[in-house]
Write a structure and sequence with these properties.
- The protein has helices at about 10-20, 45-55, 70-75, 80-85, 100-110, 120, 125-135, 165-170, 195-205, 230-240; strands at about 65, 90-95, 110-115, 145, 150-155, 155-165, 185-190, 215-225, 245-250, 260-265, 265-270, 275-280.
- The protein is an alpha/beta fold and about 280 residues long.
- α9 packs parallel to α10.
């Protein structure tokens, strides 16, 4: 367990640990994980230190974040990417953790996992838990097939899956840790952002050149972000000029369901089937 962002609710954390144990995992809670420094889970140096320790610990086979919130972007300059690269292992989380997921892929070539955190596992749906198991333990390539696909532009595309939380990714623009989305199938999701803010963030990223030569776009959950038809219209209009397939309706992100998907793995997006097929197990 690591807590690179905000402090977590102890009761939810305990319930989430119990879920992991029932799924067959052994859990390691580092000393000092529950520290608080204002709205952060300890100082920047403390949070980075725990992350380094869990990557270096040979008995640890995977790392899952306690919660998101805010703060992971603050520790990026403190990370020893050479150290992390030497001991690759799954890092799992979403929301604010998107900064870490994409940076470790960018700087280390490390496949990371956009999926639940410990506190959201406490009340996760069976489908969410099953998806986490399949992503971490499965020997077959994952495939997500939507029951209710939202096609904003039809087509097929192949590329590396990247992305995550829109707000977090927008805040990486102009930094040394800004992802490069060329030939990527881009995943976006968010929570509690009014439509005009989503418009503003997309505008900033577009003007910064983030969307040039992306291969495709998939949309996860946009919880408490306003009317979904208006939201989809914004994305369709923003990305229409790129002539890429755009598909919404994925249970990824802040909704009740949160499928686990690997960041940094080649995928095939097919809007006609309403599917996202990963090329590697």
């Amino acid at each position: 367990m690591v807590a690179p962002s905000g402090p977590f609710d102890p009761a939810l954390f305990k319930k989430g640990l119990a879920v992991l144990v029932r799924m067959g995992f052994q859990t390691v809670v580092p000393e000092g994980l529950s520290k608080k420094t204002g709205y952060l889970a300890g100082t920047d140096a403390h949070r980075a230190h725990i992350l380094h320790e869990m990557f270096s610990d040979g008995s640890v086979e995977g790392i899952i974040c306690a919660r998101g919130g805010y703060g992971s972007v603050r520790i990026l300059p403190l990370l020893d990417f050479d150290r992390i690269r030497k001991t690759p292992k799954p890092l799992i989380g979403f929301s604010d953790i998107s900064a870490l997921l994409n940076t470790l892929y960018l700087k280390c070539g490390l496949v990371t996992y956009h999926g639940p955190v410990v506190t959201t596992l406490a009340e996760a749906t069976p489908k969410t838990r099953k998806s986490l198991n399949a992503a971490l333990k499965g020997f077959q390539p994952l495939e997500l097939v939507l029951s209710r696909p939202r096609v904003m532009r039809p087509g097929k595309a192949k590329g590396i899956l990247m992305g995550g939380n829109l707000t977090t990714l927008c805040h990486l623009v102009g930094t040394p840790f800004a992802p490069r989305y060329k030939d990527a199938v881009l995943l976006l999701e968010d929570k509690g952002e009014p439509l005009y803010r989503i418009d503003r963030m997309l505008t900033q990223m577009k003007l910064s050149g983030c969307f040039k030569r992306i291969a495709g776009l998939i949309l996860g959950e946009f919880v408490d972000c306003g009317d979904m038809r208006s939201l989809y219209r914004i994305f369709r209009d923003f990305f229409w000029e790129y002539e890429i397939p755009i598909l919404g309706g994925f249970e990824i992100g802040h909704g009740r369901g949160n499928h686990t998907v690997p960041i940094g793995v080649p995928v095939e997006l097919d809007t006609h089937r309403g599917s996202l097929l990963f090329q590697w197990p």
